[in-house]
Amino acid sequence: MTAAPRPAGPRFWITTAAGWGLIGWGLFGIVSNHLDTRPADLARFVAAGALLHDLLVAPVAILAGALVARAVPRRARGPVQAALVITSIVALFSWPLVRAYGLAANNPTSLPHNYGRNLLVVLGLVWAAAAGMVVVRLKRGI
Amino acid sequence: MSVRLPEPLQRLTTDPDAPLRQGAYRSALRDERLAAILGAALGVLFSTCFLTGLYSHLHQHPVSWLPIPPRPAGLYRFTQGLHVAAGIASVPVLVVKLWVVWPRFVSFPVARRVSGLVERIGLLPLVAGGIFMTFSGVANIAQWYPWRFSFTAAHYWMAWVTMGSIVAHAGAKWAVARRSLARPSRRPALADADPDLGTEAEDGVGTGLTRRGLLATVAGASGVLTLTTIGQTVRPLRRLGLLAPRDPGTGPQGRPVNRGAVNAGVVDLAQSPFYRLEVTGRVARPLSLDLEDLRALPAHDAVLPIACVEGWSYSAPWRGVRVRDLLDMAGGEPDRTILIESLEPRGAYRTSTLNPGQAADRDTLLALYLDGEILALDHGYPCRLIAPNRPGVLQTKWVNRVVVL
Q1: What interface predicted TM-score (ipTM) does this complex get?
Q2: Which of B216, B240, B264 lies at the terminal end of a domain, its last residue?
Q3: Do B132 and A38 count as a contact with CB atoms less than 8 A apart?
Q4: pLDDT in tens, B360-402
Q5: Are residues B229 and B337 in the same domain?
Q6: What is the 3-state composition of chain B as percent helix, strand, coil, each rounded to the nearest 5?
Q7: Interface test with B, best of A37, A84, A137 (most B CBs within 10 A)
Q8: CB B105, CB A50: distance < 8 Å
Q9: pTM of the full predicted structure?
Q10: B124 contacts in A (CB within 8 Å)?
């Protein structure tokens, strides 16, 4: 089912021109500050981020969604999906901290917490909340 | 022009002009209204990051036609705390937004019109830029640098690319977003709207999170990340900062530092008996003061924040000599830019400048004491710059020269 294509109006072309103007300014800045921005390096890194999402993160998320839809009982499905989404995002965010990739030598104030333990605490609370929601749903007979 | 892909691939691709939910992507969460809400939220968060980021850039790369005033004293602490918090909060919104609109990334043909092709090409800098900005920002606050380019330069220039893509994307999606946001929020049950899906729903397939549930999940994820990190700058929430890269109460004299004396290579120089503070440049009477001289000068107290570009901050009572008093003593030319130099032998932040307004502020000090104690070596002993409304990296430590430019 193909919706009737709407012709692009002036708004589209004005914002496109303005947007690509800004993009051009950014690219110009990257090239003209090449000693700092290392354009080839940067381009590889930017492309790697997008490819990592498209070829790994997105397919894994789609597969995980399909798996949950089949394996998790109906009443638990929503809370489990929510908890899985939050778990993956919080874990991804805190991974550099947990692994202490950026730990500075000679600086006791760098990464001062036990991030592995703290991540488990946070995720434990998230899953406890999800479990609580499942219990409520079962009681209400939803 | 109808090019057909081989069958297995064909099943995974989508029609660029059909609604989001189509073909193999049957979840009711692939929804225009959801995409518009998440997009609007991302637009607000990224614009907040962009504007606060520009402000931070202007601090670090000052221009003479727009001098940054020294007041309000806590402004940079607020804007940079907001920059990092908004960036962190945008992570879940970005991830889920990409999932919701995934069918648009795999449409084939790529486009049917010139405008569609232009819009599709614009998705490259939009998606790649959004991912780069959040990833590099999150890595930076964890002080993790898995790249060879300069973080500040790349993050700054890529921000223009990303913001430009957002402008183009917002214009391209304006009509469809407005239409879907204007729809009444209570929509027919899925079974009525789509008998196919409704039947599946009875079988237990295709149910799970509702659209509202997914929005609540995004808000929940952003909330968890915000609550567990914001304590690095909002002091009352310090105890909740389980995933915060810094703790505003941990460090020498109970305060964190980004770069200590050992890593800056100043341990011996800073403690040398031959230490002198020189006030020089366009001055009538160059000064050379040892630590005793400095301590004998009239001292002033000021409660000022150290606000790191990485989003952590603390406010503390400082005591030291006013920069403007030193300039008066030396007979410095008025209304000049002042260069503050550190004992650090190298590094991008071994110097900083004060514009005339900043140099003249009553609270712009070369601090000798923190919390009533002599400055710890890691905090810039024997003396450091502390001035209102200023990024932490420009509060130069281990100061040994004040130059009137």
Answers
A1: 0.95
A2: B240
A3: no
A4: 999 999 999 999 999 999 999 999 999 999 999 999 999 999 9
A5: no
A6: 50, 15, 35
A7: A37
A8: no
A9: 0.94
A10: 50
